[in-house]
Amino acid sequence: MTLYGNRRRSNALVMSLCYGATAFGLGFLALILGTLLVRGAQGLNLAVFTQMTPAPGNQGGLLNAIVGSLIMTILGVLIGTPLGMLAGAYMAEYGRYSRLTTLVRFINDILLSAPSIVIGLFVYEIMVAQMGHFSAIAGVVALALLVVPVVVRTTEDMLLLVPAPLREAASALGMPRSHVILKVAVRAARAGLITGVLLAIARVSGETAPLLFTSLNDQFFSTNLNAPMASLPIAIFQFALSPYKDWQQLAWTGALLITLAVLTLSIFARWLGASRTAP
Amino acid sequence: MADVAMNSANLAKSASRERAAALNALKFGDGLFKNLTLAAALTVLLILTGVIVSLVVGSLPALREFGFGFLFSSTWNPVSEKFGALAAISGTITTSIIAMVIAVPIGLGVAVFLTELCPQSLRRPIGVAIELLAGIPSIIYGIWGLFVFAPIVQQFVEPPLIALFGHVPLLSSAFAGPPYGIGTLTAGFVLAIMVLPFITSISRDVFNTVPPVLKEAAYGVGCTRWEVVRSVVMPYTRVGVIGGVMLGLGRALGETMAVTFVIGNAHKISSSLLAPGTTISATIANEFTEAEGDLYTSSLIALGLILFVITFAVLAAARLMLARLEKQKGA
User: Fold this and answer.
1) What pLDDT shows up at residue B217?
2) What's the CA gap between A216 and B102, in Å, rounded?
3) Which residues of A34-60 are buried (b: 16+ CB within 10 A; e: fewer)?
4) Are A97 and A160 in contact (CB under 8 A)?
5) pLDDT (tens digit, 9 = 90+) per residue, B56-88?
6) Of B51, B114, B117, which has the smallest distance from its Cβ to A122's Cβ?
7) Which contiguous run of DSSP H or E holds residue B76?
């Protein structure tokens, strides 16, 4: 009976530790989101969306940073997505059983979690150092390089889910391979592919490190891709480390905006992936 | 009659010509598309090669100047242009170890909770919430760490630690000095909270690969939950769990923004965990745009190269382990 008692006690102990771990972990994460919501909402007003980033001590908003982030994220995704989708199509369709695919998948998985600051250094070396100045286009390339692995991964996974009989039926009708892929397989996996792109947008929209020494920052409104451009994450970084209360408040508000955008995108992606999975 | 026959022959000839042209166009398009996808796949390889080559080329001046001593020197003096990576490397490793020590047991605990204890109706919502949290940008953790967490640590965590361990031999030096709030320990904490969702969601996925029959058999012979987890789930998923943990470690090692805010950016190796320090990524983030001179820039790129080599090794090992689990699952 003592053996039984010991087993029960150790079970109860470990299981209550698991409850404790869950409470601790979820509690901290809830605390972070709660603080973010409260502190961020305090500074949320129209000026945030209509005014430029201010000089120290002045009132202002985040307009140029928001626009800069939108421009660079959209362009980065526009460049990275086709490349990632084509590579994913090769891996799932033409080279499904080739050694090259195994290698590319391995390398891609490493790129997927490689430190983003290293990607920033790479783009600095190949673009900023060559051009001689920081520019938004370098930031775009850095973000595109972060989009590629996410899209490659989801494209391959989603195309692999498309049942082979669909492709065989299309091939039996005499369709060329490229049409089988584009008109049948891709169409069947469309929802999943869109999910991948949304996840990629969510991933890059909060990236700070690769922008630090590519697109740098700009106090003013600019849409010139050949010049430094402001972005939300960099504005948050700069303002949070400043001693000015106004700037710190803007940093919280910017952080709230990014988090809301990322969460909305991921929830939408999840919903899309769940409601229309490949047949 | 002859006219009609000739006409239809002409028609047939032109039709077959058109057919051939259309087929050729299709064939051309087909080949083009195939090569396009192949080129894209090769581009992925090219990106990685490009990253490695550019980092090596960029760090050559520093490596030529300092040689292997770069790895073992903790001097970091932009004025006299003497640079060494040791302080940054040790900071990176220390913060990551602290993060892992905290996040791994908690993450595994949450994963056990989600797979064994949680009521079925709550599993999906909690699981989804954790996956969503894994996607929150790291800068959010950074500013929360700076404004909210560091003052709490300074007031409520560090003084008791100093009081508790201050007179214990060995540990006293690890918890010495004034409570700044900002330092290696805080950075490790913030990193831990950041990688917690990663570790949790991967371990949960890995735990779910255990065939229910195995667990049911163990429950059937009267095992408690803990015994099932320890003797059935853990042995079955060991490789995958280690892979997931190393994936989290890879994130922690390369993380920039969550750390830069709270590490204090001091280029020295301190025996105390409470003292400010620095990490590779924090050094690069803070100093790169202001670096004057080729040697300074090159030293920072060399730091990036070291970081890349470390994370590459960790991530490669993690992926190989997870791939092994996949194979096991398929077999």
Assistant:
1) 94
2) 34
3) ebbeebbeebeeeebeebbbbeeeeeb
4) no
5) 999 999 989 898 888 888 888 888 888 989 999
6) B51
7) strand B76-77
